[in-house]
Task: inverse folding
């Protein structure tokens, strides 16, 4: 981790800063993420399915998620998802909103109950994974993932979507049964956090 002091970080956007933003295309957000086969798969979905922002789109649809971090100690916030019964980062469906940073920040705020979260663009990670929710057919989430920074002393309260919510150290993740994509997301997000602290 960086040796830089924790200082106010520039370039982070809050809910108010994203509320009325227009003209953000989902393909641009995906293109600004890490290159590779996953990015290509998400772009192919967008090219072939104009309804990719709708949760009914199959074989999958766009989602936005957030790796919420505490800059004081670099812990991350995970929730034990009630339906999927596993530890996950906050996130959810685009539901027609092409501004995936706004989607990720909205979902993080709703699912953690923390006021004052701020998001870093561009996305730090992209992931495509299969989900099998109860009473739904298995389908893919094409997930655009961002670093989100919590305010000092933030206490998460969660909502109905999680049975538990907990601040954890990244070293704890393998023992919590999380998938490789979440471990990768945490690594990339903490690298971005360290860079933001050094940029001050």
Result:
């Amino acid at each position: 981790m960086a040796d830089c002091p924790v200082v106010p970080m520039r370039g982070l956007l809050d809910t108010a800063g994203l509320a009325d933003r227009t003209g953000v295309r989902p393909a641009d957000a995906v293109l600004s993420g890490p290159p590779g086969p996953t990015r290509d798969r998400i772009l192919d979905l967008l090219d072939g399915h104009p309804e990719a922002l709708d949760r009914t789109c199959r074989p999958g649809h766009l989602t936005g998620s957030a790796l919420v971090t505490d800059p004081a100690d670099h812990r991350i916030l995970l929730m034990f998802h009630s339906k999927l019964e596993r530890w996950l980062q906050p996130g959810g469906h685009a539901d027609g909103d092409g501004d995936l940073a706004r989607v990720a920040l909205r979902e993080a705020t709703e699912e953690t109950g923390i006021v004052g979260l701020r998001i870093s663009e561009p996305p730090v990670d992209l992931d495509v994974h299969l989900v099998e929710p109860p009473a739904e057919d298995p389908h893919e989430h094409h997930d655009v993932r961002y670093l989100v920074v919590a305010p000092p002393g933030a206490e998460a309260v969660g909502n109905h979507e999680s049975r538990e919510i907990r601040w954890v150290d990244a070293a704890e993740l393998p023992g919590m049964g999380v998938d490789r994509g979440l471990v990768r997301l945490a690594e990339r997000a903490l690298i971005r956090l360290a860079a933001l602290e050094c940029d001050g």
The longest strand covers residues 118-131. Residues 180-199 form the longest helix (20 residues).
